[in-house]
Amino acid sequence: MPTRRQFLRYGVAGALALTAAGIARSQPADRVYRAASGAEPLTVLGAEDRAVLAAIAPALLAGAVPERRDALVGSVDRAVAGLPPHLQREVLQLLALLGSWPGRRWIAGVASPWPEASREEVAAFLERWRFSRWALLQQGYHALHDLVLAAWYARPDSWPAIGYAGPPEVK
Amino acid sequence: MIRDPIRDGLAAGWKVTDASRLERDLVLDADVAVVGTGAGGGVTAETLTAAGLDVVMVEEGPLRSSSDFHMLEAEAYPQLYQESAARKTLDKAITILQGRCVGGSTTVNWTSSFRVPEATLAFWRDRFGLSVLTAGELTPWFERMEQRLAIGPWTVPANENNALLARGAAKLGIATGAIRRNVKDCWNIGYCGMGCPTNAKQSMLVTTIPAALARGARLVCGARVDRLRLQGGRATELVCAALDPRGVHATGKQVRVRAKHYVLAAGAIGSPAVLIRSRAPDPHRTLGRRTFLHPTVISAAVMPQRVDGHAGAPQTIFSDHFLERGPIDGPIGFKLEAPPLHPVLFGMTLQGFGERHAALMEAFPHAQVLIALLRDGFHPESHGGAVGLRDDGSPVLGYGLTPVVWEAVRRALLAMAEIQFAAGAKQVLPVHERAQPYSSWAEARAGIEALPLEPLLTRVVSAHVMGGCGMADSPQRGVVDAGGRHFQLANVSVHDGSVFPTSLGVNPQLSIYALTARNASALAADLTGKAAPPSG
Fold first, then answer.
1. What are phi and psi of B56, to 5 degrees?
2. For B281, left (φ over 0), alpha (ψ -120 to 50), or beta?
3. What is the residue-wise DSSP string for B278-292?
């Protein structure tokens, strides 16, 4: 657990990182929001967002072992695209924060770049946020938890491991 | 082949507009504009149309019907629920399940049907001056709606998830009862929450709305009501934004409805939000206040036998034992029920991640779950929440989980664990980030007594949003009168769960149906100048 003094430092850095992430994000996000009529986007995550999720999902799903990580990230992407704009914005900000160097290093406390982070390192970060005294970080944990677990258990390939046969035939 | 009454009706020429397809703005004139098509909107539309009034219904969500209901969470939550079933309170501590589709929450609810308890009505008479709302006044309306929606006893044996509540409670001398359901020829499948694939559930989607459409009412779906235009204490126009086919972004096209009267039935977050966006008069700061949730906590158990909580009618057994132990305005009481279990909601709701979470998920077929619904709004320190707007105009509910709520949460977690062990549980796991699976009642009791009860550690959910446009005898105490008429806006009514001045202490659908039937009949009489048809 970070001490209060550490957090104040991290807090300021975090605010800066969040702002920077928001700025970096504003253009593509606006494009997404304005693409409403006509061909609406089915996906909203960028390559960096996907890389963050590809690193975090295996830690959340350790023991459930998704075989096709890319497919799972695609499921999360489609789920995010179906969220209302205010929630999409929050998810994109969270992923941008985690994808930024100060966000990963200082706020998440993950030393390795995401593609190289070990499952243990990621799990330790998730556990810190889960029990953080800062509501914002707890909320971030819950967002990742809910997005990834919902995307996984929505997929029929997750069901055999939990003994669920799927819905019955109705005709 | 199951007949799909919605597709049949569309083929027969019902006047339904999917606003996502509009290429130019749409302007409609009507006698009455009804905002929302859930329990309140559906009953209102049928009642007014039957009285000969020209009705336009506006629904934010899509029109989906039995042919679309594939019993898949991946489809149902984004299509049929507010915010993809990820709606949360401002601090993200409470997850809120609400429908967003034609039929509203009635399309996706679990069919539990209760009349508002007399103790709740007595409290309303005493504290909110609602002297007209007696059991005698409401009984004919309950009877009428019970008949209309085939509400009656469920005679098929309870599924194991519910039966375990009955058996565990019986061992402890705790009384349980059978839940009545609004179903006809139900197949006992268990997927009510994803839209009924057999049209057995007598939701608004297959009852009142088809009846209204068959009599010429119009329905615009995929349109989010932005605001009422107000002038001189009256509403002059309803302004709506058309949404894209997935209901996420506005397309830029508008739908406007000009009517003699406007009925808000957008649910207890939606209706106050429309009035706030409309800058409706709120001289006593009652609008959007006193919003109640039946804050609900969860206890999961692992049974030696298979439970298969996804299968069979989802809610058939309840216990009011812990509601009836003290005065209604004393320490908060709670109702016990069992919820249906499906992989996405179960997986998202269970605490933790990784190997431990996966191990819990492997117990899915053996999982038994109880929920405790806290009766908020009666204790002097239970004020509920408040609806506000985000920068983009979307509504958000702030709800403070105060010490009187947490005190009840601990009692509820203890009561559920004791019942589950009495029912034979091998392990009980309160849904709380700091809880571990407990192997005995003694261990669970010690563990639960020590749990830090805080937001974001304790999982709290709600499927019953009530209040925010509360009824009262005077504008100082509420937003609408006992007939649902707005105190300051002469031609605006509210017909949904937002009129309840407290929570109900029971699942709300039937109480909304009955109160709406009463108020919509009076409104019809008022607008047509003809006496209301006899009730009952």
1. -115, 125
2. beta
3. TT---TTS-TT-SEE
Cite the DSSP H helix spans in B53-200: 73-80, 105-108, 118-128, 135-148, 160-171
Residues of A in contact with B358 (CB under 8 A): 61-64, 161
Q: What is the ipTM of this complex?
A: 0.95
Strand partners, B178: B317
Dist. CA B256–CA B65, nearest whole Å? 26
Across the interface, of A60, A146, A168, the residue whose CB is closest to B86 is A146
Task: Give the gap in angstroms from C-alpha A33 to the nearest C-alpha of chain B.
Answer: 7
| B458-491 tens-digit pLDDT | 999 999 999 999 999 999 999 999 999 999 999 9
Q: B367 - beta bridge partners? A: B302
pTM: 0.94
Strand arrangement of the beta sheet that strand B112-113 belongs to: B112-113, B180-182, B151-152
Residue B356's closest chain A neighbor by CA? A63
Measure CB to CB from residue B83 to each of A83, A168, A171 and give the nearest one: A83
For the CA atoms of B358, B71, B206, B102, the dihedral, rounded to the nearest 10 degrees, stands at 70
Short-list B283, B297, B310, B221, CA closest to B35: B221
CB nearest A37 (choices: B78, B91, B244): B244
Among candidates A37, A59, A159 on the partner chain, residue whose Cβ is nearest the Cβ of B343: A159
CA distances from A96 to A24, A99, A106, A111 (A): 8, 5, 14, 17
Residue of B nearest to A164 (CA): B365
pLDDT tens digits, residue range B97-107?
Answer: 999 999 999 99
Q: Which tokens belong to B19?
A: 């606003």
Q: What is the mean pLDDT of residues A147-155?
A: 95
pLDDT tens digits, B2-38 = 999 999 999 999 999 999 999 999 999 999 999 999 9
Main-chain phi, psi angles of B355, to 5 degrees:
-55, -45
CB < 8 Å to A170, chain B:
2, 71, 187, 189, 197-198
CA distances from A40 to A95, B66, B248 (A): 22, 26, 10
Of A160, A25, A2, the closest CA to residue A98 belongs to A25
Split at pLDDT 50, 70, 90, the class of B1 is: confident
Contact A135 B91 (CB under 8 A): yes
A146 pLDDT above the threshold of 90: yes
pLDDT bucket at B531, cuts 50 / 70 / 90: confident
